[in-house]
Design a protein that fits this description.
about 900 residues; alpha+beta; Immunoglobulin-like; Jelly Rolls; Maltose phosphorylase, domain 3; seven-stranded antiparallel sheet; 49 strands; about 20% helix; globular; alpha-L-rhamnosidase; alpha-L-rhamnosidase activity; hydrolase; EC 3.2.1.40; glycosidase
């Protein structure tokens, strides 16, 4: 049986309100048997789900392509819904039926189509309370279709007839507001009633007007909140109507008396205002409006309260058992005017008391003043917290039932795609911590941390973790949106800011009293190159390379223009191997020479731009960047490699980068590998790497014959190690290897996050090397891939699955009692895989108990000596050896 399933448009299922002028369609195929490949596809687009009016028809196309098929020539019309269906045939001519119909709906594609006006509060109105807006209108007949298109300066929440519109939070999201502002589209057909209706809205400061950064910065983008919204109604009789934000709206203060992302929200349930005033009209531009690009933030999980704790200091604390991001929703009954507070913290101190010093100035406190009218429920609207523990203040004893408190986990609603399990509980907890690091920090932008007065889109952290993230979740829409802001905030000289969206004008140099510009650090700015490349190889998204190509080139040109040597980057400020353990006392920067790191990344980014130019068919650019890369590598070797083949920089990170970025020739490479092993021996196989070296460390070891050393690092439980954090109770990845020291004391309070995903980049090695699921850059998106588990001491079995763009990939290996191995592999339809069985001999290998040479589904095999390399098509395979 052959069938098409999971048809998507721009990665999404049935999206509405998009503005992509050439939408792309992708699908997956199910089939019985093995070695099934697509030989033909037929794609149709219609304006009715009956397909009586087909407006775009590919015809039968002989092709095995099933990803990102562009609807060239469709010319979609604003506010129009298009229906899509696909049928395919395999390489033998067996055809499917038409797929289930899916659809996409266009939003307002041109700024000039907006009829609404920007509305705001009168300038005399108090800025602290969240304003609420309203308008009454009449629906003049039975409603057939209704859509709201909305955005805000600040954050917004809409209601129709008292019911919340949509399931999304923190809309319109955080972009480079000066140049890009997203709007959202909502289907509100069900919420409208014939006759009288009321449309209301709440606004919050959010990223637009609220506090951002650690120096009490606020109103970075503007000092006036604003709302822009349109309700488009189509009646059964064919008539249409548009209700817009304009002078007919009114505004007053709401019960949300104060709201800040860092500090929390105060709600007075007794507050009622009848002082409705006329709105002000703002002259804000509509030409920066773009449709929603990534997944919206939603409630994803609800965690139950685990334990009520009374601390030695007498605090009443609830433990949710998991460091999470979102908020606490609670039910309460009490007297009018009773005030309760919830403070949020990640950890308890060594004595078991509530600990908030690492939050710096972020208050992370929600306050609720009861109305006294029976059971009441509180949850913030425009603030989120990072926490595991909450302190309850002002609650009576009978209000402390654990069932009344729920931890609501919020993050961008990405499709989770990866799962990794093993025979070791601590490794499984490490994987859990990596996943929850992603959940906590992928809230519309990739933040460094979700709790203190920061929560910024640090570019370095994002590029260090994106490859791991691409296994855990489909992050293509998430990072596509963020990369557009990278380009928007990139300077004309090509320099890339430290954080995106960029809100840092100046930041204190951690090594001096001087200020430096918040642009242009090696390994941080390289996100402009590394991230789009990762999206391309992981998802086959050539369009992201086309979109970001100018930005990628500009970054490399910026580097080349620094200093007097165009092939060595030895000028400017760099974070270096941030938080490495070989740093000098009281320094955040590791011992690896910063110019060494900068030049290494210069070579790496240039190599990526070279490959991108080749993919995009830009031959002259390809030749230019190929020559530039050669010159950089030669200059690097002249500067940092001795005539005997040793590196002049004697750190773990220096050796890791040289090997990972292929910066040393064959003769020197063996010396560098031996020296790296020696450096590890000197630390009794403990890492000293920081943000720059850690993501690549275990990869380099495994790829250079030191897989046992990589496993030793993985299983270390004392400081410093990944598992050390778990021995201290971590449920997410920490910013510092010793956020909690061995004696129970803390690292410095000025920078000690317990939810910081950068060191979670070890997850990439778990999927790619331990489980062995590795893509092929030459044929991206796992169209062709390798299953090559690297087995080591400490694990008896591993099972990993990854939901690729083609379907599920699985690699599950298990050691047998007889000293052999079993390996189960799943290969999706329309893909092929190389299975490499390390340490196997052909005569010892069976596939489903059949000798290898007779096994079905084997396309070819060879005997390279101590391993077997097998090419297989789609299907499920079980090898024993």
């Amino acid at each position: 049986m052959l069938s098409v399933y999971d048809v998507r448009i721009e990665y999404q299922k049935n999206p509405i309100g998009i503005d992509v002028t050439k939408p792309r369609v992708s699908w997956k195929i199910q089939a019985e048997g093995r070695n099934v490949r697509q030989g033909m596809y037929h794609l149709q687009v219609a304006t009715e789900d009956s397909f009586d009016t087909v407006v775009w028809d590919s015809g039968e196309v002989s092709s095995d392509e099933s990803l990102h098929i562009s609807l060239d020539g469709l010319n979609p019309i604003s506010k129009t819904r298009y229906y899509v269906r696909v049928r395919v045939a395999d390489q033998h001519g067996n055809e499917t039926d038409w797929s289930e119909t899916t659809y996409f709906e266009m939003g307002l594609m041109q700024p000039k189509e907006w009829q609404a006006k920007w509305i705001s509060t009168p300038e005399s109105m108090d800025k602290k309370p969240s304003p609420q807006f309203k308008v009454a209108f009449e629906a003049k007949g039975k409603v057939k279709k209704a859509r709201i298109y909305a955005t805000a300066l600040g954050l917004y929440e809409l209601h129709l007839n008292g019911e919340r519109v949509g399931e999304d939070y923190f809309t319109p999201g955080w972009t480079s507001y000066h140049t890009r502002l997203q709007y959202q589209t909502y289907d509100v057909t069900r919420q409208l009633v014939e006759g009288n209706n009321e449309w209301t809205a709440l606004l919050g400061n959010g990223w637009y007007r609220g506090n951002l950064g650690w120096e009490n910065q606020k109103e970075i983008y503007g000092n006036r909140l604003g709302l822009l919204a349109e309700l488009h109604v189509e009646y059964e009789d064919g008539k249409t109507e548009v209700i817009v934000t304009d002078e007919s709206w009114q505004v007053t203060e709401s019960a949300i008396r104060e709201s800040e992302l860092y500090h929390g929200e105060t709600v007075d349930a007794q507050f009622v205002s009848d002082n409705w005033q006329a709105v002000d009209i703002l002259s804000e531009s509509k030409y920066k409006l773009v449709a929603q690009e990534n997944e919206l933030v939603r409630k994803i999980h609800s965690l139950s309260a685990k334990e009520l704790i009374r601390t030695p200091n007498g605090e009443i604390v609830i433990d949710f058992g998991q460091n999470m991001v979102g908020w606490v929703e609670f039910d309460i009954e009490g007297k009018p005017g009773q005030t309760v507070e919830i403070k949020h913290a990640e950890i308890l101190d060594g004595d078991g008391n509530f600990y908030t010093a690492n939050l710096r100035t972020a208050k992370q406190t929600n306050q609720y003043i009861l109305s006294g009218e029976g059971k009441e429920t509180f949850a913030p609207r425009f603030s989120f917290q990072g926490f595991r523990y909450v302190q309850l203040i002002g609650f009576e004893e009978d209000q402390l039932q654990l069932d009344n408190f729920h931890g609501m986990v919020l993050h961008s609603d990405m499709e989770m795609t990866g799962d990794f399990k093993s025979s070791d509980d601590m490794i499984n907890q490490l994987q859990h911590n990596i996943v929850w690091g992603l959940k906590g920090n992928f809230l519309d932008v990739p933040t460094d941390c979700p709790q203190r007065d920061e929560r910024l889109g640090w570019t370095g952290d994002a590029q260090m973790f994106i490859r791991t993230a691409s296994y855990l979740a489909n992050v293509a829409p998430f990072f596509t949106k963020w990369l557009r802001d990278v380009e928007a905030d990139q300077r004309e000289d090509g320099s890339v800011p430290f954080v995106v969206p960029n809100v840092l004008s100046q930041i204190d140099d951690p090594e001096s009293d001087d200020d430096h510009n918040s642009f242009g650090s090696a390994a941080w700015g390289d996100a402009a190159v590394i991230n789009p490349w990762t999206l391309y190889i992981a998802y086959g998204d050539k369009r992201i390379l086309q979109e970001q190509y100018d930005s990628m080139k500009a970054w490399v040109s910026y580097i080349k223009a620094q200093g007097d040597n165009p092939y060595l980057w030895n000028t400017g400020f760099h974070f270096g191997d941030w938080l490495a353990l070989d740093s000098k006392p009281d320094s955040y920067v590791g011992a690896t020479d910063r110019a060494y790191i900068a030049t290494a990344f210069f070579a790496y980014s240039t190599s990526i731009v070279k490959k991108t130019a080749e993919i995009l068919g830009k031959e002259e650019d390809y030749q230019y960047y190929a020559e530039l890369e050669d010159n950089i590598v030669n200059a690097f070797q002249d500067e940092y490699v001795t005539p005997s083949g040793n590196l002049a920089v004697p750190t773990q990170t220096a050796h890791v980068l040289a090997l990972m970025f292929d910066l040393v020739d064959t003769q020197a490479k063996s010396r560098v590998v031996k020296e790296l092993d020696k450096l590890l021996q000197e630390t009794d196989y403990h890492l000293t790497t920081g943000f720059v070296g850690t993501p690549y460390l275990n990869h380099v070891l495994t790829e250079n014959g030191l897989n046992d050393a990589a496993y030793t690092l993985l299983f270390q439980k004392d400081y410093p190690s990944w598992l050390y954090q778990i021995t201290k109770g971590a449920t997410t990845i920490w910013e510092h290897w010793d956020g909690i020291k061995e004696d129970g004391s803390f690292w410095s309070t000025d920078m000690n996050s317990f939810n910081h995903y950068a060191y979670g980049a070890i997850g990439d090695w778990l999927y790619r090397k331990v489980a062995g699921i590795e893509l092929d850059e030459e044929v991206p998106a796992f169209k062709q891939f390798t299953i090559q588990p690297h087995i080591g001491e400490g694990l008896d079995w591993v099972e990993a699955t990854y939901e690729s763009m083609y379907g599920e990939i699985k690699s599950a290996w298990r050691k047998t009692e007889a000293g052999g191995m079993e390996l189960e592999v799943i290969v999706p339809v329309n893909t092929t895989a190389q299975v490499k069985l390390l340490g196997a001999k052909i005569e010892n290998v069976k596939e489903n108990n059949t000798p290898l040479s007779q096994a079905s589904g084997i396309l070819s095999f060879a005997d390279p000596g101590d391993s077997i390399d097998i090419l297989i098509g789609s299907g499920t395979y079980r090898f024993t050896y």
